[in-house]
Design goal:
CATH superfamily: Response regulator
Structural class: alpha/beta
Distance between the termini: 4 Å
Strand content: 15-25%
Number of helices: 4
Order of helices and strands: EHEHEHEEH
Shape: globular
Radius of gyration: 13 Å
Length: 119
């Protein structure tokens, strides 16, 4: 089982992602914005992957990426803004996405990091 951190300011999106990823066998934590996400990322245990929304008030997803620097867990960047999909991340997911697309993106990110997805 992998630890996935979902950072999104939309409560319904956080809830849906939490349910979908939990049903896929992952432990899921959620943060309500970029600041809360960075605070969580500073605490152990380190998430195995982060699902990060781009457009959020305050500190947006691109700001979170910049603050994390190169020594960060794998990121699945989620956005409705096609320009943001140019960011320096390996996995992107365009909104709106289907639940199976979210699971596939997280699994791909986990597979590349060497993390186990076994329950």
């Amino acid at each position: 089982m992998a630890l996935v951190l979902v950072i999104d300011d939309e409560p319904d999106v956080r809830l849906l992602a939490t349910i979908v990823l939990s049903r896929a066998g992952h432990e899921v934590e959620a943060a309500v914005d970029g600041f809360a996400g960075l605070e969580r990322l500073a605490q152990p245990p380190r998430p195995d992957v982060v699902v990060l929304d781009v457009r959020m008030p305050g500190l947006d997803g691109l700001g979170v990426l910049a603050a994390l620097g190169p020594d960060r867990p794998p990121i699945v960047l989620v956005t409705g803004d096609s320009a943001a999909l140019q960011a320096e991340v390996e996995w992107t997911l365009a909104k709106p996405y289907r639940p199976d697309e979210l699971v596939a993106a997280v699994e791909a990110a986990l597979g590349s990091s060497g993390s186990s997805t076994e329950p």
